[in-house]
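BUG: 3D viewer hangs when loading the predicted structure for this chain

Environment: internal workstation, default settings.
Expected: structure renders.
Actual: progress bar stalls at 90%.

Input used:
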Amino acid sequence: MQTDLFIFVQARMSSTRLPGKVLKWVQDKPILFHQLDRIKLTKWPCQIVVITSDQPEDDSLSEICELEGYQVFRGSLNDLLDRHYQAAIHFKAKHIVKIPSDCPLIDPAIIDRVLGFYLFNRGKYDYVSNLHPQSYPDGNDVEVMSFEALEIAWKEANKPLEREHTTPFFWENAGRFKIGNVKWETGLRYDMSHRFTLDYAEDLAFIETIYNRLYPVNPQFSLKDILDLLTFEPSIMKINQSLLGVNWYRNHLGELKTISPSQTKQKHD
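Structure tokens produced before the viewer hung:
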């Protein structure tokens, strides 16, 4: 496929909170491949690349992804900004979509909506996401940026959090970039009340329950299907309820100018 639009799915085996989480089996395959299957449903012509680290612990991840026919790029373990930039250089990407591998319930329709906003307004925005402010349930993260903007961030970002989390340089320096945000069309905000992301064992149990209920009936289940299930079986929400609102922001509130304490909370064991 000839396209300059690439979706980079960052993944690694060395998660400190849930090691090897991307290859945990759910239903009939590793959870990462469920997510990649969902991403492939996007209507926009693009190439999907799993970008992992160049460390030995990610050899198995790289091999299994390649065996499944996915393109793989390997780069820095902790400098995710460099990993994305070097992957963009390698593949000659002009437009980069960043989706983390901790979003195995991501709805392709949300990818389409965020990406469509960026593409229909091509040239008007350097960076578009559905995260600033966030309204969709946590775990539907889509960020799109031009190569030119990514290169500026790569050259100038110097704070550890800017390198580790790839995109804070954009929204922390909004005056330098043309930034767009896509809000949930319902007008609702479920970012702190619904958690579909994969970070802890409780999250895995929640996600596995969702797949066990919905996947056998419809492998392409939607966000609406998930929300309908949670309305019908509210007890599922309790599985990872203690983690609602827990995200990486909590460790950097003193450094982030655009993030308030209301957008995160501390984890209580």
